[in-house]
Amino acid sequence: MKRLIHIHIFIFLLVLSGCSDDKKIEATAKPNIILILTDDQGFGDLGYYGNPIVKTPVIDSLASKSVRFDEFLVSPVCAPTRASIMTGRYAMRTGVYDTQRGGSLMATSEITIAELLQEANYKTGIIGKWHLGDNYPMRPQDQGFDYTLNHLSGGIGQPGDWPNTINPDSSYYNPTLWKNGTQVKTEGYCSDVFGTAAIDFVEENKDNPFFLYLSFNAPHTPLQVPQEYYDLYKDVDVKKAFKNDSKPFPNMYPKANEYARKVYGMVTNIDDNLGRLFKKLQELNIDENTLVIFMTDNGPQDPRYIAGLRGKKSSVFQGGIKVPSFWYFPSKFKTPRDVKTTVAHLDILPTLAEFCGIELPKDNAIDGVSLMPLLTDENATLKSRTINNYWSRKHPVKYKNISTTKDSLKLVALENDFKGSDTYELFNIKNDPYELHDISNSDTLKVKEMKSEMKAWIAEMLHSENFIKTPRPIIGTKHENPLVLNLNDALYHREEGVRKPIASWEVNFSKTGNYAINVHTYAEIDEDSQLLLKVGNTIKQMNFKKPNSKMLMVDSLKVDKGDIDIMAEIFTKKDGEDLLTMPLYLEVKSLD
After folding, report:
1. Which residue among 117, 163, 402, 427 is least crowded, i.e. fewest CB within 10 A of its CB?
2. From start to end of 225-329, where are the E strands?
3. What is the DSSP letter of 333?
4. How far, in Å, CA of 156 to CA of 168, rounded?
């Protein structure tokens, strides 16, 4: 897909400005929904919020016509954000607490937006990134999506995305994806593949109400960008371009300038693909009856322009958790405007439920609230509420990188020295949007009150059923056989005297029987290497029989039904020293 930027701008202006007031939506027509999510695109990675470098005319035009939530909060990293979007619940309630190491598995008991809409006779589709479990019963097709075209793990080419890991320098081109559960080889740059698939989906479902979750993996690393898009920014000095900007600007290390150029190229490519999609909506005459939501999943992964906000991805400061959120549905949200009320990703499911006239799940507590009053009434307000946030590699560390936001006040727990000495900062976000002025010493009562709320929230999350009992892939069912366990969902731990961490998987065998297990490696393994496979209490020790092999087959192993842990260790020798290599993935097949 090659387009000059001036043509790109013209096409999109034609698309959205061509919407006429003469069009009438039939009263009985159910609205379509397209939820667009980009990965690691920060608040400042678009033109609308003051970035003069990046070229995003499609997104900017959408913003100008939308209801814009200027204080829209998400989680500091992607999988927790996605879990909350899908369920309307804090991520830890769903079993999700991280992006890897088994922390991005969402319990199958969760009720997703897709399941709610599927029950209301919507055609549901996901295109792009899921990152909430790659095995039954946690795959998108197990959680309410009729159509799926997705990659594995947290990103194309990451270790957990094993089909593309072997091409680390070009994984974004011609990626292997999973279409309705079947592995397929695609052609083209990943965002173009997803853009084309989105167009095909809306065309195929134009006569039915549909929900499309278009979840781009870009501009997440690896920063692979088509040359024509990189060329748009190759000569730009990003830091110099903002030298006269009055807002705070992060310290950019030398490589960050180059990283920003590539990110901007990837974002412009997404912008072009959205232009193609919006043009198709108009051609099909369904643009007036389609709610378009655009947002991102967290702050930028590297320091660059972020509209003055403090922090970046992984931080609970605003730069890590405040993202663009544009809602466009001109027949009902008639006045484009900025909404200053603090809202969150938790609110998407209850909002879409009310928007479509669907009852909320009764068995799962919903933490979000409906934003329909704010979307439809310029004078509406919401009740005072508290929104909590955190991120660490396992579970909340008392008290580090945790925030509690209530109305305009935000308490940030910075660190804990494990001797009971905690450090907090308090900000008035309305008066101090860049979080420069700590007012904790001048309002000690408010700090005490909000610390109490933070403490209670952490305790509640740590006692969540799905957090205590990790969701497990289920092996031996007709739904996925063989089942492939990837590194993203493995738990890592270390053993004394071993230089590298050991990977293990917590799984459930659905039935007692015989299973074949193929252990795949990233690099070729010498014949002197040895596999140690532990399946529950059963230990299998084998030598690699062939030199330069990438797979070792365990032909048959009797396994009992129930929850079992699998661990695979590959020992090799180098310079007379034992080294441990983790498998790239395990392939487990029921033989019964």
Report:
1. 163
2. 290-296, 322-323, 325-328
3. S
4. 9
What are the beta bridge partners of residue 517? Answer: 554, 588
Residue with tokens 């484009």: 336
Query: What are the tokens at 118?
Result: 């599927």
Residue 50 within any structural domain of the chain: yes
Mean pLDDT within 25-49:
87
Q: Please, what's the b/e burial string for 312-323 (b: 16 or more CB within 10 A of its CB; e: otherwise)?
A: bbbbbbbbbbbb
Contact predicate 535/566, CB 8 Å:
yes
Structure confidence at residue 572 (pLDDT)? 77
Answer yes or no: is 368 within a domain: yes
Q: Are strands 530-535 and 538-543 parallel, antiparallel or unpaired?
A: antiparallel
- Amino acid residing at 410: K
Q: Count up the domains in the chain and report the number.
A: 3
Q: What is the mean pLDDT of residues 354-365?
A: 92
Give the confidence band of 498 by pLDDT, cuts at 50, 70, 90.
low
Do 333 and 440 lie in one domain? The reply is no
Residue 8 counted as domain residue: no
* Angstrom distance (rounded) from CA 161 to CA 149: 14
Q: Among 376, 394, 410, give the residue marking a domain's end.
A: 376
Q: For residue 453, is it within any domain?
A: yes
Cα–Cα distance measured from residue 174 to residue 186, given in angstroms and rounded to the nearest whole number: 5
- CA separation for the pair 170, 174 (Å, rounded): 8
Is residue 549 within 8 A of residue 525, CB to CB? The reply is yes
Task: Give the CA dihedral 247, 250, 255, 260, nearest 10 degrees.
Answer: -40
Evaluate if residue 552 carries a pLDDT over 90. no
The DSSP output letter for 313 is: T
Determine the straight-line distance between the first and last CA of the chain, rounded to whole angstroms.
48
What burial class does residue 207 get, using C-beta atoms within 10 Å of its C-beta: 0-12 exposed, 13-18 middle, 19+ buried? Answer: exposed
Q: Which residues of 518-543 are buried (b: 16+ CB within 10 A; e: fewer)?
A: bbbbbeebeeebbbebbbeeeeeeee
Whether 341 and 440 map to the same domain: the answer is no
8 A C-beta contact, residue 58 and residue 323: no
Tokens at residue 33, please? Answer: 């929904």
Question: CA–CA distance from 209 to each of 111, 119, 162, 329 (Å)?
Answer: 20, 12, 35, 15
Beta carbons within 8 Å of 59's beta carbon, 6+ residues apart: 46, 47, 48, 271, 274, 294, 324, 326
pLDDT digits (tens, 9 = 90+) for 313-356: 999 999 999 999 999 998 899 899 999 999 999 999 999 999 99
> How far apart, in whole angstroms, are the C-alpha atoms of residue 515 and residue 555?
8
Q: Which of 83, 118, 140, 142 is nearest to 466 (CA)?
A: 83
Mean pLDDT of all residues in the chain?
91
Within 466-510, strands assigned E span 474-475, 483-486, 491-493, 502-509
In one-letter notation, the amino acid at residue 260 is A
